[in-house]
Design goal:
It contains one helix and nine strands. By secondary structure, the chain is mostly beta strands. The chain has a single domain, classed as Calycin beta-barrel core domain (Lipocalin, Beta Barrel), CATH 2.40.128. It is globular. The mean pLDDT is 95. An eight-stranded antiparallel beta barrel has the order 1-3-4-5-6-7-8-9. The longest helix has 9 residues.
Length: 117
């Protein structure tokens, strides 16, 4: 639970971190978790497109499962095709990573957050 801000990304090759990227200057993405709800928003300075999503979440068997109810215009288009987003979850105190897994169970990308509240 709490408020979290994106600080960087990892790319994976053979389930190992291959590249690390920090958030670009001016770019911001935050996620807020209540006991059962999640909302996230991002600001991309070079892009006027709004990005946010809202829904429920649960943590089960080391996975973060978000089920989005609605979002920005762009996100609503994605939600029409896919409402449930499942990530491998790694939490360590005031940091967490949500890791994208492919169909074979291999890691390929993660978003890395720090707690801001």
């Amino acid at each position: 639970m709490g408020a979290w801000e994106l600080v960087g990304y990892y790319n994976y090759v053979n389930n190992k971190v291959s590249d690390t990227f920090e958030v670009r200057n001016g770019y911001r993405q935050v996620k807020m978790f209540s006991p059962s709800r999640v909302i996230w928003a991002k600001k991309v300075p070079a892009d006027s497109t709004e990005w946010f999503g809202y829904g429920t979440y649960r943590i089960k068997d080391g996975k973060l499962i978000e089920i989005l109810d609605y979002g920005s215009i762009m996100m609503s288009r994605i939600i029409q095709e896919k409402k449930e987003f499942v990530y491998e979850l790694q939490i360590d105190g005031n940091t967490f990573s949500q890791i994208n897994i492919d169909d074979q169970g291999n890691r390929y990308y993660s978003e890395n957050y720090i707690r801001v509240e």
